[in-house]
Specification:
single chain, alpha/beta, 2-enoyl-CoA Hydratase, Chain A, domain 1, Rossmann fold, N-(1-d-carboxylethyl)-l-norvaline Dehydrogenase, domain 2, 3 domains, 17 strands, globular
């Protein structure tokens, strides 16, 4: 049954079919709301005894149209439409498939009956864009499922299955065959009409459990407001429905104009934008099946695990048989961990393992579509890898380096077919971290880039296009961030103060805690490699070098910026480190001063924003979206703040410019200030 309009009504005897066809996800846009409102009127005036609401395409209604959220709400409003459906004299059946999310779930809860295809998923994900539901979702949900489940759904954005809801009597049936046919059969044998969901008694939690839940949500939210506001709204379900719904709607509309929601909506759209850079639009990617990964250390094994999980066959190549066996065991151990955590099933584990081959000669890469190098960060070593790969692989096989800092142009020097060469910069642990920088070389072909992006998407990564510079997008910004953090140390702050300030901003950990977790030795090696080329006018703080020289290399060594006594992973302030910091200031005639948490945040964000702007000015990143997605998915920038570039827009460039002016004045010759931040 096709529709010429987004919502159409057709009468088949005593049954009215209401079909929504509003690609791609049947969002509850103004035209859909209007169509549903009209449908209620038409059905009320017909001879129909039941109405079946069904959707065309790959899903039921999967949410609202966020492109409308920056404008004033247009009638008919969704809560009014849902109420009309719920109060209709003709009972409505929601026949659902795919995902039933946000406004879709609110509509479904307003229907008299609910039937779903077996794999259907349900949720209220408004929290992910800084909102609470606005059409009765928080008021009807606790009247349909236990309050604890309602909290998980609304405050955490969890999805639940049709089977779970059927067990709770929150839906009436799961289709055994064709959804349309089963919905029709259900309509022809309707059970007695149940009480409307809005008129049922809401489930509750005991006060002590409610308080404990609030504490857990606060800890997880790390400063984000909307999870707690969703909890508040759910608890309003103890009120009469009309009163609770009015409060919910008013808060929903207020939150549309909040900085948090603007930031999270920016992140939502930015994720979609970066997946389709201009250079690959209209290009069909090549099909990949067999992937070779060169190097089976922690990074290579993580990459291999991610690639296996995406359905590809993987050949893991190491330097000798012993190393190849160890690499295979590393990957299998990662897969076992996923099995034990319930991320994959036993059959999936066996399937992944069957698609993994380890080898210790480059001939094993024959017939592979893509090779990813993940060996030691040394140009000569990497060049040798690609010479050997090029000698055995097809001329059109894609060659990718995973380098973090080296220039890929040098790595691929002399390789025939430079259009097939690119960077695929994974982040550790590669099977977990979502960011993938796709690095474009001067000769990289658009077809190769398109295939790289399709590969990243298949791996469920957020792939971002990057140009070539020292550290690409992410590590270049990280270097600026760390540099200013060390300037703050030299001038008066201590590691715990800086880390506490950045946690209060929303980071999971501050810069020094993060360094200790990842280890200080890699950055130290990078600094030593670049020492001869360092700009002599740039201020250089030697404190981190002194730590490394003293064997304080981070958590794994039991000490870094902090002490980690015994097997502890909890950072403890170190008197030795703080004395070293103060000694550096004294030796360099620096009069130390106090910094407030707000000053620390302002300065670190100023340099981060400044570096992001320079990266865009230089064409290393295509857009604000690219910079923000790199920071959110690779470096822990709080998603609910939208990324550093969105944050700069929110607080105003004038404020950022003044902070950057102070930073620049205190470390003359150390910073290049972006054009947009110059007076």
């Amino acid at each position: 049954m096709g529709c010429d309009t987004p919502v159409c009504v057709s009468l088949k005897g005593k049954i009215a079919w209401v079909e929504i066809d509003n690609p791609p996800v049947n969002a509850t846009s103004a035209v859909v709301r209007s169509g549903l409102d009209d449908a209620v009127t038409v059905i009320e005036q017909s001879d129909a005894t039941v109405a079946i609401l069904i959707c065309a395409g790959r899903t039921f209604i999967a949410g609202g149209d966020m492109s409308e959220f920056d404008a004033a709400p247009q009638p008919p409003h969704l809560p009014d439409v849902v109420t009309r459906i719920e109060n209709s004299s003709v009972p409505w059946i929601a026949a659902m498939h795919g995902t039933v999310l946000g406004g879709g779930m609110e509509l479904a809860m307003g229907c008299t009956y609910r039937i779903a295809a077996p794999e259907t998923q349900f949720g209220l994900p408004e929290v992910s864009v800084g909102l609470i539901p606005g059409a009765g979702g928080t008021q009807r949900l606790p009247r349909l499922v236990p309050m604890q489940m309602a909290i998980n759904i609304a405050c955490q954005g969890q999805r639940v299955s049709a089977e779970t809801l059927l067990d709770l009597n929150a839906i009436d049936a799961i289709a055994k065959g064709d959804l349309r046919a089963d919905a029709l059969a259900f309509a022809n044998a309707l059970p007695p009409r149940p009480k409307a969901v809005s008129q049922r008694i809401a489930s509750t939690l005991a006060p002590d459990l409610r308080d404990a839940e609030r504490e857990k949500i606060t800890a997880r939210a790390k400063g984000q407001d909307s999870p707690l506001l969703n909890l508040d709204a759910l608890l309003w379900s103890a009120l009469p429905f009309a009163e609770g719904q009015r409060k919910e709607r008013a808060l929903h509309l207020d939150l549309r104009n909040s900085a948090e929601s603007r930031a999270l909506r920016h992140a939502f759209f930015a994720e979609r934008e970066v997946r389709r850079p201009a250079v690959i639009k209209g290009i069909t990617p090549d099909k990949l099946e067999k992937i070779a990964v060169i190097g089976g250390g922690l990074m290579g094994a993580g990459i291999a695990s991610a690639v296996l999980s995406a359905g590809y066959s993987v050949t893991l190549i190491e330097r000798d048989e012993q190393a190849a066996n160890a690499a295979r065991m590393r990957v299998v151990s990662t897969l076992k961990g996923a099995l034990q955590r319930g991320k994959i099933t036993e059959s999936m584990f066996l399937d992944h393992k069957a698609r993994l081959v380890s080898a210790f000669n480059y001939a094993a890469a024959v017939g592979h579509d893509l090779a990813i190098e993940a060996v030691f960060e040394d140009v000569t070593v990497k060049q040798d890898v690609f010479r050997q790969l090029a000698s055995v692989m097809a001329d059109n096989a894609i060659l990718a380096t995973n380098t973090s800092y080296l220039n890929p142009t040098e790595i691929f020097a002399g390789i025939e077919g430079p259009e097939r060469c690119l960077g695929l910069h994974f982040f550790s642990p590669a099977h977990i971290m979502k960011l993938l920088e796709v690095v474009r070389l001067p000769d990289t072909g658009a077809q190769t880039l398109a295939t790289g992006f399709a590969f990243g998407n298949q791996l469920r990564k957020v792939a971002v296009l990057a140009g070539i510079c020292d550290g690409f997008i992410g590590n270049r910004m990280l270097a600026a961030y760390r540099r200013e953090a060390e300037y703050l140390l030299a001038d008066g702050a201590l590691p715990y103060q800086i880390d506490a300030a950045m946690r209060s901003f929303g980071y999971a950990m501050g810069p020094f805690e993060a360094q200790d977790m990842s280890g200080l030795q890699i950055a130290w090696a990078n600094r030593k490699a670049k020492a001869m080329h360092r700009d002599p006018t740039q201020r250089y703080i030697t404190i981190s070098d002194q730590l490394c020289q003293a064997g304080r290399l981070g958590q794994r060594s039991g000490k870094g910026w902090y002490d980690y006594p015994g097997e502890s992973r909890k950072p403890m302030r170190s008197g030795e480190v703080e004395a070293l910091i103060e000694g550096f200031s004294s030796a360099n005639s620096i009069t130390r001063r106090d910094y407030s948490g707000d000053e620390i945040i302002e300065r670190l964000l100023a340099v981060l924003i400044n570096e992001g702007m320079l990266i865009i000015e230089e064409g290393i990143a295509e857009s604000v979206a690219a910079v923000d997605m790199v920071q959110i998915h690779g470096y822990g920038f709080p998603r609910w703040r939208g990324g550093p570039m969105q944050y700069a827009t929110e607080i105003g460039l004038e404020r950022v410019a003044k902070a950057m002016e102070r930073v620049d004045a205190e470390s003359p010759g150390s910073w290049i200030v972006a054009t947009k931040l110059k007076n």
